[in-house]
């Protein structure tokens, strides 16, 4: 697992929960909510899909760490199991 | 303002989705051609069963995210609301949103979404961390009406009206009352059903020995026929634009019909079994409110659901209400099954064109009429041309003994 793969995982989840959004030019260093029509319920969907698809738990206090693709990668990388590398 | 309580209320637009058409013209054509919309559909835990399935373009008025978050009932409601406004020649942008009310009848709501969540949870060892945060907004009782307001930016009152299978009429009646109270200037009112997506409805009817079965799904719903054996569950929706007559005339609206009278009452007797005495009283009281005699009714759009007992009891109620007065009687469930909360509104819609063309669509699938249902005015298997239809009485009854009757008349200034 590496940062780029995690960013793709997050983008794939966003594609499911916000299917009308154009994800072809999402800037990894900018807030997702500034670039896409995502609300707080959508972020709960992202958290749910990380739980369902990857067994990763994101506590409420850490939600801010999912604000951009870069911060997602930085935060989530240690949470992915090493055997998945 | 003094006379607002006595305002004449008219229907000026209709939006619908049914198993045999997603607009009034197509729906009516199917009814006159005798085309059933019942087909097999896969029901969770139960396999393929006959059902009425709608096939409308959900993305016409909602994006894919809205469809993912919302409910099927909400989506049906949104589609019907847009179509009704368009049919009435109205655009939401030109309306005062706080003066629009939304009243959506439902037989039930929340079963589909709850079953889906429980099924989802079972995939995760019943760990409730996997229960969706969308569950509550999806299952609150006002959901279908609320989704319409969110989609259209309506800020007037909205709610769903739980009235079992009398709900379609109940929604319309609520719209009439709110217009007469001056609470709103325009009502979107009728009913919706998403019930084919909950196995619980099918299983409940089967356990009650009231679920239709037939080798040919198109013949499964057969009210008044000797071989009828139960209900075909259907989805559907039908919302009307209701306005006070003065408002409708002022904007030059086309008027589909005028609400002449209505009644709702309760059996007060049983959870499931209908009560023909109360049904008959409901019919009589609706006519009384319309200041009409039974002999003035040209057509009864019957509720009959194709159950052995219920159909006979409605026929008894009609005999009690109409006596020797011959009135034409037809049934829409023979085409589309039982659209539950949408039934009353949808069944009325298919008959409204009779005010214009004088033709009464039939009840299909009657190959051997049950003598206990042999009403003199039954229109069976073929449409009937008449000298003119001026008054339609629309029956819709539901569990826990809830009865609703609407009387519509051809509009005349």
In short, what is this structure?
Chain A has 85 residues and is mainly alpha-helical. Helix content of chain A is 49%, strand content 0%.
What does this structure look like?
The complex is a heterodimer of chains A (85) and B (413). Chain A is built from four helices and no strands. Chain A has 85 residues and is mostly helical. Chain A has one domain: Orthogonal Bundle (Non-ribosomal Peptide Synthetase Peptidyl Carrier Protein, Chain A), CATH 1.10.1200. In chain A, helix 1 (3-17) crosses helix 3. Helices cover 32% and strands 22% of the residues of chain B. The mean pLDDT of chain B is 97. Chain B has helices at residues 24-33, 64-69, 72-87, 111-122, 135-139, 143-152, 167-180, 199-207, 245-250, 276-289, 308-322, 333-336, 343-351, 354-357; strands at 9-17, 38-43, 47-52, 100-106, 158-162, 186-193, 233-234, 236-244, 257-266, 299-302, 328-331, 359-360, 384-385, 391-398, 402-409. Chain B contains 14 helices and 15 strands.
Low-confidence stretches of chain B: none
Percentage of residues in DSSP E strands of chain A: under 5%
Summarize model confidence as the mean pLDDT of chain B.
Answer: 97
Beta strand % of chain B: 15-25%
Which CATH architecture of chain A is right? Orthogonal Bundle
Sum up the overall morphology of chain A in one term: globular
**Would you count the extended β strands of chain B for me?**
15
- Radius of gyration of chain A, in Å, reads 12 Å
**How many domains, in number, for the residues of chain A?**
1
Number of strands of chain A: 0
- Widest beta sheet: strand line-up of chain B: 5-4-6-8-1-9-15-14-10-11
Structural class of chain B: alpha/beta
**CATH architect. name of the largest domain in chain B:** 3-Layer(aba) Sandwich
Q: Tell me, what is the CATH class of the largest domain in chain B?
A: Alpha Beta
CATH superfamily membership of the largest domain in chain B: Thiolase/Chalcone synthase
Multimeric state of these chains? heterodimer
Number of helices of chain B: 14
Share in helix of chain A: 40-55%
């Amino acid at each position: 697992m590496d940062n780029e793969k995690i960013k793709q995982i997050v983008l794939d989840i966003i594609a499911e929960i916000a299917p009308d959004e154009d994800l072809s030019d999402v800037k990894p260093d900018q807030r997702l909510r500034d670039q896409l029509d995502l609300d707080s319920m959508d972020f709960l969907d992202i958290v749910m899909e990380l739980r369902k698809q990857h067994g990763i738990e994101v506590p409420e206090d850490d939600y801010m760490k999912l604000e951009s693709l870069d911060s997602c990668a930085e935060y989530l990388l240690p949470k992915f199991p090493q055997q998945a590398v | 303002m003094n006379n607002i309580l006595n305002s004449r209320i008219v229907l000026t637009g209709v939006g619908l989705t049914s198993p045999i058409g997603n607009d009034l013209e197509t729906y009516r054509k199917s009814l006159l051609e005798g085309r059933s919309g019942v087909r097999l559909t896969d029901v969770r835990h139960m396999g393929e069963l006959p059902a009425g399935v709608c096939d409308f373009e959900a993305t016409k008025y909602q994006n894919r995210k809205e469809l993912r978050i919302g409910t099927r009932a909400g989506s049906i409601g949104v589609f019907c609301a847009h179509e009704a406004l368009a049919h009435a020649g109205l655009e939401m942008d030109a309306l005062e949103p706080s003066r629009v009310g939304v009243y959506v009848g439902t037989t039930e709501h929340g079963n589909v979404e709850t079953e889906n969540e429980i099924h989802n949870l079972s995939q995760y060892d019943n760990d409730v961390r996997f229960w969706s945060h969308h569950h509550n907004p999806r299952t609150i009782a006002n959901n279908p009406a609320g989704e319409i307001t969110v989609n259209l930016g309506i800020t007037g009152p909205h709610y769903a009206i739980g009235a079992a299978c009398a709900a379609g009429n109940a929604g319309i009646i609520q719209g009439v009352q709110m217009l007469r109270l001056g609470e709103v200037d325009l009502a979107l009112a009728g009913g919706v059903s998403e019930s084919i997506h909950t196995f619980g409805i099918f299983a409940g009817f089967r356990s009650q020995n009231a679920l239709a079965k037939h080798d040919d799904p198109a013949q499964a719903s057969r009210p008044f026929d000797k071989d009828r054996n139960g209900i075909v569950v259907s989805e559907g929706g039908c919302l009307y634009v209701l306005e006070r007559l003065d408002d409708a005339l002022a904007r030059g609206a086309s008027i589909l019909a005028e609400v002449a009278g209505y009644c709702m009452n309760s059996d007060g007797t049983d959870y499931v079994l209908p009560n023909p005495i109360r049904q008959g009283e409901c019919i009589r009281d609706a006519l009384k409110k319309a200041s009409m005699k039974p002999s003035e009714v040209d057509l009864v759009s019957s509720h009959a659901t194709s159950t052995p007992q219920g159909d006979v009891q409605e026929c008894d109620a009609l005999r009690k209400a109409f006596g020797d007065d011959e009135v034409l009687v037809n049934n829409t469930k023979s085409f589309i099954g039982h659209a539950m909360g949408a039934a009353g509104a949808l069944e009325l819609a298919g008959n409204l064109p009779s005010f214009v063309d004088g033709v009464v669509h039939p009840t299909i699938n009657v190959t051997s009429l049950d003598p206990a249902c042999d009403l003199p005015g039954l229109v069976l298997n073929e449409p009937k041309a008449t000298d003119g239809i001026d008054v339609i009485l629309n029956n819709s009854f539901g569990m826990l003994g809830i009865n609703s009757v609407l009387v519509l008349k051809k509009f005349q200034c």
